[in-house]
Design goal:
A hairpin with a 3-residue loop joins strand 2 and strand 3. It contains 4 helices and 3 strands, in the order ααααβββ. By secondary structure, the protein is α+β, with helices and mostly antiparallel strands. The protein has 2 domains: 58 residues, lambda repressor-like DNA-binding domains (434 Repressor (Amino-terminal Domain), Orthogonal Bundle), CATH 1.10.260.40; 40 residues, no CATH class.
């Protein structure tokens, strides 16, 4: 048995791993992820390629901790005729630019 089968978790790649593979600083990787225009096109391509090779997925939790922004929009709709929000349903939809929208309604 190997790795995952034995209960050993595979280390998740970080922004620093991407930077090392691309031969740039982690700040440059951050600029690429934030679509900054201050990154040369060739460098941007190297960083994006490194991200693909490592199957790098930015951590939403890390981004929220760093920016103090959750990019979450929540809307709660209550039907007071049906006893308030006692039986809520919730649905989340993808939102542009890594935002999350959560809409709750009661029946």
């Amino acid at each position: 048995m190997v790795g995952h089968e034995m209960g050993v978790r595979k280390k998740k790649n970080t922004i620093r791993d991407v930077a090392k593979l691309a031969g740039v600083s982690y700040q440059t990787v951050s600029r690429v992820m934030n679509e900054s225009e201050s990154v040369a096109e060739e460098t941007r391509k190297r960083v994006l390629q490194a991200m693909r090779e490592l199957d790098f997925v930015p951590s939403k939790v890390a981004q929220m901790l760093n920016t103090h922004q959750s990019h979450t929009l929540e809307l709660i709709v209550v039907n007071i005729r049906q006893g308030g929000a006692s039986r809520n349903r919730s649905k989340a939809w993808p939102w542009p630019r890594a935002m999350l929208a959560t809409i709750c309604w009661s029946q």
